[in-house]
Design goal:
The protein has 519 residues and is an alpha+beta fold. The chain is built from 14 helices and eight strands. The radius of gyration is 49 Å and the shape is rod-shaped.
Length: 519
């Protein structure tokens, strides 16, 4: 209904040349079909409306169908996913309009400017606005989906952090308590073989050593229940509670473990106290000493820490024990160390070495953490880039449309104001006067779109020229018609009433003109 209102009222308000009733009804029918197709076939609806506009005006611009053309272009941008069909429709409308102007146009230059301005400002600009609207809605939906996904990821991250902390605590308990129980077993073994000890005391020391070994195994099984995450997950480095690697080795030696500390090469990078590298070194050495005390009691152990230009290497090597300890139950201590070292970019190796066993870990120097990406450094989403492109297209189309429409309106104002014949000059003209006598009273230009349909039939074998009676723009005014014969004499002059003048008014207007001619 809203789209049909301009088509119904434009003729009656004098904003268009009057058309037969069947043309008005046909135009309303085309608009109705286009409105019905606009939801599922927006391109077809736009093409139908563009064809209707071209049939009414070669320059495509008309008050009757211009608003509908802009609305369907907006819906085309809002509902069509691809841009190429719409661009093809705009180009097709421009080509058809150009051909029509070349064939039936009265003044091709300004009409082509009006056609181009209408395509840009009345079609492309609304279409870009529709695409911008569509992409804004898609971007908003993507934003809500991203927010929901980020919330899910945050929940998963919190759950993973909780599980990692649980595994860290379990690993810390396993390593710390296992190490202490191993040292306790070493002290019990030393007490068992101490000279001058009574037999019952030796038996008590042996029981204490066996109890410590059993407690270590029980601890391992209990901790395994807490470690319900994969050891390949990113482990948190364990804190050595302020104890250095050298102090750890000294305490193990005091407990009876035959361990020797190899001086560290100071050519390497200085270790940050309490840093990740220092804590991982402490953890590797502690786990290696615990395994040596359990599985190779009495075997000599050498701990060497060597500095390099880019990192630090720790090596724990133990020999072969005279009486091997209890077999391993397949603990995850070494696997946890491998994952911890790999998480900082290091290398971990453990395996037989000669008659004994060796654990070796390379840890790169700790790097300064990279700054967290800010909101400006995060790459924009594809929808944001699309919005910027559409916004630039809107600006370019708006600027070009304003320039073309301004140029077309300037040309229209120039031609209309330079084709005005004043009523006083028209009254001075007399039939039978030669053209040379009439020429000084005539304006520079004649009207290029004369109201031929409203004018009476011209005399035979004459050439008629039309002039405006007023310089008012965008409104219908009276026109003066002057008809000349082959010899250049003024044969007849008539007044063509403006649009909207009633039949009685036209008759009175004609009688007044006849009276002026008679006088």
């Amino acid at each position: 209904m809203a789209l049909a209102l301009p088509a119904v009222t434009a003729d009656r308000l004098g904003m268009n040349e009057p058309r037969p009733l069947w043309q008005q009804l046909a135009g309303l029918g085309v608009l109705a079909v286009a409105a019905a197709l606009s939801r599922r076939r927006p391109l077809v609806a736009f093409v139908w409306t563009a064809g209707l506009g071209l049939s009414a005006a070669p320059a495509l611009f008309s008050v009757s169908y211009g608003p509908a053309l802009g609305v369907f272009a907006l819906l085309l941008g809002l509902r069509a996913e691809r841009a190429r069909p719409a661009v093809a429709g705009f180009v097709g409308a421009g080509v058809v309009g150009t051909v029509r102007i070349a064939l039936v146009g009265v003044d091709p230059a300004p009409e082509w400017l009006v056609l181009t301005g209408t395509l840009l400002f009345g079609c492309v600009f609304p279409w870009l606005g529709g695409r911008y609207w569509r992409q804004s809605r898609a971007l908003a939906e993507a934003g809500w989906l991203r927010a929901a996904r980020l919330e899910d990821e945050q929940r998963h991250a919190e759950e993973r952090a909780r599980l990692r902390e649980r595994a860290r605590i379990a690993q810390d308990m396993h390593d710390s308590l296992g190490h202490e129980l191993s040292l306790l077993a070493l002290r019990a073994a030393a007490l068992q073989v101490a000279p001058g000890l009574a037999a019952d005391h030796r038996a008590a020391a042996a029981d204490l050593r066996a109890a410590a070994a059993d407690a270590t195994d029980h601890l391992h099984r209990i901790i395994g229940v807490l470690r319900d995450v994969s050891v390949n997950d990113e482990p948190a480095p364990l804190s050595p509670a302020g104890e250095s690697v050298e102090e750890l080795v000294a305490r193990a030696a005091e407990s009876g473990l035959p361990v020797r500390w190899a001086p560290r090469d100071t050519a390497g990078p200085a270790l940050e106290p309490g840093g990740i590298v220092e804590r991982l070194l402490h953890r590797v050495v502690r786990e290696a000493l615990t395994n040596a005390a359990r599985h190779a009691p009495g075997a000599p152990v050498v701990v060497a820490v060597t500095g390099h230009a880019r990192g630090t290497t720790v090596t724990v090597t133990n020999g072969r024990a005279a009486e091997p300890g209890p077999p391993s139950s397949g603990g995850s201590g070494l696997l946890g160390l491998r994952a911890a070292v790999a998480s900082v970019g290091g290398d971990f190796r453990a395996g037989p070495h000669g008659a004994g066993f060796r654990v070796r870990a390379y840890l790169p120097a700790q790097q300064a953490p990279a700054p967290a990406p800010t909101a400006r450094s995060v790459p924009s989403a594809p929808f944001a880039h699309a919005r910027r492109r559409v916004a630039l297209g809107l600006g370019a189309a708006a600027g070009a449309g304003i320039l073309l429409v301004g140029a077309a309106f300037g040309w229209y104002a120039y031609t209309e104001t330079h084709s005005v014949l004043s009523p006083a000059a028209y009254a001075e003209l007399r039939p039978g006067t030669s053209y040379d006598e009439v020429a000084p009273f005539l304006p520079d230009r004649a009207v290029h779109d004369p109201p031929v349909d409203r004018a009476p039939a011209p005399p035979d074998d004459t050439e008629c020229r039309y002039y405006r009676s007023s310089g008012e723009l965008l409104v219908s005014v009276d026109h003066f018609r002057l008809c000349f014969d082959d010899e250049g004499g003024l044969v007849a002059k008539d007044v063509v009433p403006r649009v909207g003048l009633s039949g009685e008014g036209r008759g009175q207007h004609g009688r007044q003109e006849q009276q002026r001619q008679h006088e």
